[in-house]
């Protein structure tokens, strides 16, 4: 077996063909070959067709004693609505490290949602000569993880409403009789999961017959306040008409209707649990303690109270295994989890990163992407993901484009689907220079974590030497370890070799330990304040509702959790229109919610849509199948790279 | 390679342990071994883990010239709510044929819905020593087909509401501009799928610029009547609160709310399409022509009108490949599709049966199960499934139990979850004898198709010799080719060897050609009348709504489709309480609907629930995971076999 990941040299064509044409021009290796390159044997994975395999979590146990590789996180500057190529850079860098610099490398990526794929995005596998293949398998179904999340999320939702319904019509005794029915021998038993609720209630009895009427009542009656239910149903489809709905209007439901709604599946707390869990038993506990709402007396009600935590784990037991795929240059990719980057933390999974770090071993590289700009993605990577994983990155990349920097410097608005203003297509060093304040703040914020920061400028054909030099100089002045111009979109790994070398040096020369932005044992408001300060805010303003929620979560004992800000990705501030590096603003907190199972409190800064819509002409118009060859066509005429 | 399927001899224990314990007592073979036994090499399938593989449709092309095996369908008498062991008999018979009678055999089964698995059913993999393993993989996720159906169904649903929404706020010109936007060179193009709508409108132009304003209007504006939309969303969860809902209540949806609901995923027309399709290109056409409602002028609107037929096909392209699994005795099983047995036809897929018939070859056996009693399942197997597949069965099995026959003979009501009356636990030949009228009618109806009928009596420990003889005699008197007592639940394949021999003889001695119950070219009402007559009805009564729908479908050109009756499985008549073989009743048709893509008209006899609910104590209380071993526990204390 070769120690090198250099599996294939690309023959690049100029101008770069459409993404789908590039992807289809390459015959992928059988995934067994990719697995073999990182010392995985068939017992370590389950095949899902020829080009995907689920890597079993048991690999972690097997490699427990071996050392980790370098850990690199890819963030970005505050993006335009077109996206600045963070995924593409992540993939391109890995192709450089694996196929040109002879390093062991694994790319860790999020699984994309199918909603945007059929809506406006068209896919999320990178672009140009830096892509994950096969593109269609990456973008659709994959190995079923999001489908499993949808199934689990909605089983819990059905359990909630049905329980409220059954409790409304049954006496304590009838409820108890149904929950603990006598078996053939006339003996009642608690099922295993019931002991979790009994323990929460402080009841240590093991024989149902021994419960007092009061204990029977508190055990059997969850007494969920329908108005407190925060658990929503999910679907992996852009279906705006499900944002707000009324359920329970059938005659059999006896008038117990209630307003609720659907989120897109990746917004499910179960997705965040999958991303943050560290083992099967940890996942079992997190799923069980997810809070779905409160009892009428204000006690948090969990999935385990509803008896469904075990079933959720069974539904998710394969999903916990990351999916192995490959880049265009045959380097390995682990695709796993894709939580929302605002109401959740927007990072791929801890278990994939952990497995990858062991597989590449000392001297190897794991490159993982953090959603949105560094103010959100990298911040949550450090303060939430690394906190739960106990992993330490050595290097953080910040992806920048001349286009976005010009926007931050005062360039005209950039709107997806509309032609770019001339300012973006011809040289304008002054705009770039002015925009570098945005880059500089991301650099200094990221340096604060103790990592070396490398700026990767994702070069477009219209960028000029003078513009690129301006960015390079500004980055170094702001404290970047290095700043490198990259052409991986046009050239594949070869276009990111300089970036690869810079990253290697940054990793080898890290001087400081990892430093979180805030400790966990301060108050919720103090933690929010620390993050707001990193945005440039001079203060925080809480709505009445936010105050109420903070008080409740503190009372319920959840104030020790890290904070996951739900904020626009288009500005450091709460206003998408405020580009550059705004200061002196007051950050408004509209509401505060919690994902107790995943393990974070999420303040809402402004309104977050958790269910996208479809445009008049969705991407699905261009997605078809040639039934004679079985080949798909994904016309990319309308494909726009949009940051998730 | 051995020509025999006899892979393993079971060590049976008495009394029979719980299903999960039997299943867990056997280490399944790697699915490659099972595949090899039916001459499938790795190029013919995609692995999904170690115990499942998707058999590629290309196998059919490769084996086009070779002969088919015998084709056996398993139906049943009118069941009790406890089910009479049709799946178990199907599996047991195959274990007998493969492991004891040295025949090539493939079992073709439906994929179970996860809804009932977590609700009241607990699984559908057979039972006792006649099961498909691994049980958990069979019951959950499988290879993602139902998830793909859910995704496709709901993408179409989102496309409908969003299209109505966008049409409401945009001029013809604006709509057209968005549907056919100019590309970078300023040129407009139709996407491929748009030519389907153009062709339907009789427009043969290929350049968007050439359309007249009237053509632009009719092309761009589907003008869907919101009240006519029959397409509902689906979910593979028992969620009764979604039966009737109001959507579109968010402020962004501008007051365009509408009442609709969710069905369980297996009730989706896409599931019926999957079950009835014969090739990838046939599936593409069926998905595209699914009708979702009408325009305001009464024209049917299809998935292709919405531009989404291609994307649906891409979502379903892996789902069209059947999943290979194994029985406890190592014989091969193809699991594929699981449409509802009332609003759809309740049979597993045509492509799985076709592949299986080629794989076993002449002299081999394919045993496929038809949902519900023979009045529904076998009838639809013959008149819908065989019509579309052009396959001819040689033998139809009718599964009977002493318990159900006693019920038909006048025994007390049988209720799931309640103890059986003494009548069912001690000898009562008179009740059995009286109940055989039900069996006799199923036999004569089934014989009418030109197949040999073999009755399989699924023996319970409480059945007596006199009772069993009564059934045998009644079956032969009613024209059965043979009637055999089976103990496959207790003994595995060994307990169904006599059944296997009888089936072999029945197949070898078939004398008649396949004869459908009705021709396709008569009117909808004449076809409904023919089926009603087979139930014993003396006439049919149509509601005003049913009359209206029949008139509309006839006008729209759909009257040539076969009929799929949506009727209770608990009686030949429309009233579940009428046991035995009722005659002289008038069959009421409440409404008539259509699945145009799948290819049938379905009259509703009474009210059919297409979304089950959860009981107070759902099965999920007993489904958990031992996170130390990764093993699941499915306590079977509450498992009840219920026919689907």
From TrEMBL, chains A, B:
Pathway: One-carbon metabolism; tetrahydrofolate interconversion
Gene Ontology terms for molecular function: ATP binding; formate-tetrahydrofolate ligase activity; methenyltetrahydrofolate cyclohydrolase activity; methylenetetrahydrofolate dehydrogenase (NADP+) activity
Protein name listed in UniProt: Formate--tetrahydrofolate ligase
SUPFAM superfamilies in alphabetical order: P-loop containing nucleoside triphosphate hydrolases
InterPro entries assigned to the protein according to its UniProt record, in alphabetical order: Formate_THF_ligase, Formate_THF_ligase_CS, P-loop_NTPase
Enzyme Commission number: 6.3.4.3
GO BP field: 10-formyltetrahydrofolate biosynthetic process; folic acid metabolic process; methionine metabolic process; purine nucleotide biosynthetic process; tetrahydrofolate interconversion
